[in-house]
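Supplementary Methods S3. Complex input for the zinc ion-bound model.
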Amino acid sequence: MPDINRYAGQIALNDISIDGQKRLSGSTVTVVGLGGNGAIAAELFARMGIGRIRLIDNDNVRENNLHRQFLYGEDDLGKPKVISAAGRLKAINRSVDVEPANDYLTVKNSATLLKGSSLVYDGTDNFASRYAINSACVDLGIPFVMTSSLQYWGEIIPVLPGKTACLKCLNIPGVEEGSCSRIGIFPPAVALVAAIAVSTAVSILTGKLEAGYIKIADARNGTVETIITERNPACPVCGKLT
Ligand SMILES: [Zn+2]
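Predicted complex, serialized as structure tokens:
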């Protein structure tokens, strides 16, 4: 039974209520990539009382992460992100089980790392990882939320395997890896994307998300555009699901 007093503010919301809070407390959310989006999302998941949070990343904290990546401070420089993040999340909410994995997700290990998740939060920064998550989640029947952000903008795409379009259905074009330091990243864009994506994740975990979409968030102008997506019956990844 979740702590009613601690979560009173969100239990009072019609879309969550006590039933939704029980679902959140009984969920396992895996956050892949603990950069800007992933770190903010992990903190929101811990504060909202997700029962178990798995963290997957093999990077160490660098100074040029600190302008946008919550969970880390100057004392964490050079340390593995998953270790610093896990310590911070436990300090925020000790009732959450936190499982750090200092690992890099690939096509080969994705099923092992993601198995057993109620939902996967994709906070990675490259399309090889995103498509590996897409294939594994479709095969395992795990919903996931893809996030990406660059400069002032970001995208959020929820995928419910067999129900909404997967990334391959949409053939989302890739953005070059490591582009943030070269092309720029506006910290509020990362926070905006994470806020929308965690809200989407909560809708999925509480059984309220039906349609697939792409949301395009613009932190400079404060706008969010929604494009409804359709599955591609010939999709090589999810076409086999009815
Ligand atoms: Zn598909």
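The domain at 8-228 is CATH 3.40.50.720 (Rossmann fold). Residues 187-205 form the longest helix (19 residues).
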